[in-house]
Every structure is written in C-alpha cells, then in structure tokens.
Write a structure and sequence with these properties.
The protein has 398 residues and is of the alpha/beta class. It is built from 13 helices and twelve strands.
C-alpha cells in the first residue's frame, strides 16, 4: 500500500506521490526533438524543449513547452558544433534556467550529444538543478559513427563535464539502432524507433512512481536508488505475453539492444512487475530471482508489484539499475603520472651519504584544475580545426 502520513514509517522528508513534481527537459536540437515526440503520449510530468534556435522551437509539438535561451549570445540562432558557445549561452541565462527547476523534485535532462547547444549547455543545466537540491538524471544519445570522430569527441567532453552534477546517467549510442533495423531504414524512422523505446522506458518509470501497487514504489524509493553521483544507469520497460518462459522474460528485460551495457554488477536496483489478475506469486518470485542474480552482491534492491486490468495476459517489467559495470561508456579524466626526486636518508646509518631516488607518484587533479584542462583542450580543438562548423548566426553575418 502507498505510504500515508498515518504510517509509522512516513517521514517529513518523503513527498507523497501525488505531490511529486518531475520535469523532463530536452536540450539542444536532438534533445528537443526527442522530448517533442514522447510528450504527446506521456502524462503526469512536464516536458520542456530548451534551445538557442528559435526557429527550431517553433516546429515542435504544441504539447511541449518551449524555452529559448542564450539569445544575447546567439541572436536566436543555433550554435553549430561550438561547445563553448552552447555553454556560454546557458551561463548567460542562469537565472531564467533556475525558474525552470523551481518547485520541482526531479529533473530528467535529455540531449543528443555531439553538437554545440546540447553538449555545451547540459552541464550548466545539470549543475543548476543539483545546486537547487533536485534529483538529477541524464539520458543522452551519442552520435552515429558516420557523423565522424569530431562529434564523438565533443560528446565525450560533455559526459566528462556533466557527470559530477548528475545522480545517474544513461548513455544510448545511436549506432546500436543497427542491431534492430536494416541500414536502409530512413534516418527519421530509425530515430523514431529509438525515441519510442525511450518513451516506453520512461513511461514505465513514471507509472511505477505515480500509480499505487500491491507492493508500492514511491518517490522516496526512487531517491534511495539515485542517492549517489555520476553513476551509469540502465532504464528499460518491456511488455511480454504471460505465457513466455521466465528465462526469455528475464533476458529481454535485462538485455536492451539499444544499450552497450547491462544491469550486471549494479549497486542499486529498482524494478516493478505489473500484470493482470492472473499474475502468480511463483512467476513474480522467479522473475525477481533472475534479476537479482545479475546485480552486485551488496546492491540495494527495491521492488514492487502492481496489478492492472489493461495488462490482461501480459506482464510488464520496469527496471532502473544504477551503478552498472561497464568499461569505456563514461569517459574518465586520466590520472597524470609525474616524476619527483625524493631524497632518502637511512635512519640506521646516519653517516651515510644522501641518495637521490627517482620514483613514480600518481597525482590527481582537483576539480578546478580538471575543469581548466578540459576547457584548454576544447579551445585547442576549435583553434586547430579551420573547418569547424560555423554557428548559424555567424554564417548569417558573413
């Protein structure tokens, strides 16, 4: 049953589900397109499309609220592939961005990384939300391989910078779409398939939080799962025929082809099983056991069970796993190894001459030094490449 103020385990820090406010914000051209498409079918949360390009915002779904920022910097046009321009556009409108997050409990930031606006502005939006005390969750797509290494470099720089401001990060490489479609599929159709998968996953999470269940999951549970920072997250909602084998159900729920990683080793897992009146305890037990066998040994696990008449002869599973194990998905700032001359003197032989010994010492950059280093790299890339795409508002002035 849902928690109420009369329950002994209810604390003042736990918001009731009915008052929980979640906002989904698409940032940049790609993020705005995703949010515009999924907002037509999802309720109970607010959707906002944030972009520097006014014209692009006018072409979005009427059900999506639009937010134009950085007009003083870009003149209302796009930023091309200029990461710094996207960042400065957001920084110039910090106070207006704060108004987007006012009164919210959680924000989900969506962006297609690799361009200027989304990649540059996402870290600014995320930091503002974090500083205001919101739970922050980022869902990002990465460029197709045919878009070139330059875009991937920008995407990775954005991930490095935004990571510390988010509780959890989901990364979806666009390239993985070719696991489920033919390469001759039109680009718009392919992107729509990615969006539909994201929509279904997000819908499962939202319904789990807002709808009461036999064993209930609420916003306090979500906060528990998202209690850390910068963790890789797997979000997936899948619907099955009730007569499917348990092994097939577990496999499909935990192996989404759009991901380059699974729930293996996750440190925190929230999952909900929804079915019709015929949902059996034995099936619930076997599905739960199969999911738990893939998580970390000491992982925090919260699960719920719901019954819904619209899922007659169907079973739906929603999984949010945080702290997943995977190499090379979230780029790390490399540790620097420097050489130092250390003078060592033997205490047992005081008269012995001092010896100079060369040893390797690992030095980690602090946050400020890391930020400066990243900014220097960005400037070098932009200055060295004469063919860098010029932002739209500068092209207009040529």
């Amino acid at each position: 049953m849902a928690k109420t103020k009369k329950d002994s385990n209810f604390s003042s820090d736990e918001k009731s589900t009915s008052t929980t406010k979640i906002k989904v914000i698409g940032i940049g051209g790609g993020g705005c397109s995703i949010v515009s498409e999924i907002s037509t079918n999802l309720k109970k949360v607010d959707f906002v499309a944030a972009n520097t390009d006014k014209r692009a915002l006018r072409e979005l779904s009427k059900k999506t609220k639009v937010f134009n920022f950085g007009e003083k910097i870009t003149g209302g046009f796009g930023t091309g592939m200029n990461f710094d321009l996207g960042k400065s556009s957001a920084q110039d409108d910090k106070e207006r961005i704060k108004s987007l997050f006012k009164g919210q409990d959680m924000c989900i930031l969506v962006a297609s990384l690799g361009g200027g606006t989304g990649s540059g502005a996402v870290p600014v939006f995320a930091k503002i939300a974090k500083d205001m005390g919101l739970i922050t969750y980022g869902i990002f797509t990465l460029p197709f391989e045919f878009e070139g290494s330059r875009k991937m470099d920008i995407a990775n720089e954005a991930l490095k910078e935004v990571k510390s401001h988010l509780n959890a990060i989901t990364v979806l490489p666009n390239e993985n779409i070719f696991k489920v479609i033919d390469k001759k599929t039109p680009l718009k159709e392919a992107l729509s398939i990615i969006n539909k998968n994201f929509q279904e996953s997000l819908e499962g999470l939202i319904e789990t939080i807002y709808n009461p269940g036999l064993i209930n999951i609420d916003f306090a549970d979500l906060k528990t799962i998202l209690g850390e920072r910068g963790k890789l997250a797997y979000l997936n909602t899948t619907l099955f025929d009730a007569n499917k084998s348990i092994d097939d159900i577990i496999k499909k729920a935990t192996l989404n082809p759009f991901y380059s990683y699974t729930i293996n080793g996750a440190s925190s897992v929230l999952f909900n099983i929804t079915g019709g009146e015929n949902l059996g305890l034995k099936d619930v037990s076997l599905i739960s056991e199969g999911i738990l066998n893939l998580t970390g040994k000491n992982s925090k696990v919260i699960f719920g069970i719901s019954k819904d008449t619209k899922y007659k002869d169907k079973v739906r599973i929603m999984i949010l796993a945080v702290g997943c194990e995977s190499e090379n998905v979230l780029p790390e700032v490399k540790k620097e190894v420097v050489s130092k001359n250390v003078v060592e003197e033997s205490k047992s032989e005081p008269k012995r001459k001092k010896e100079s010994k060369k040893v390797e010492v690992e030095v980690r950059r602090n946050a400020l030094e890391t930020k400066k280093a990243v900014e220097e790299i960005e400037r070098e890339i932009i200055n060295k490449d004469d063919q860098w795409e010029t932002p739209a508002f500068l092209r207009r002035n040529k």
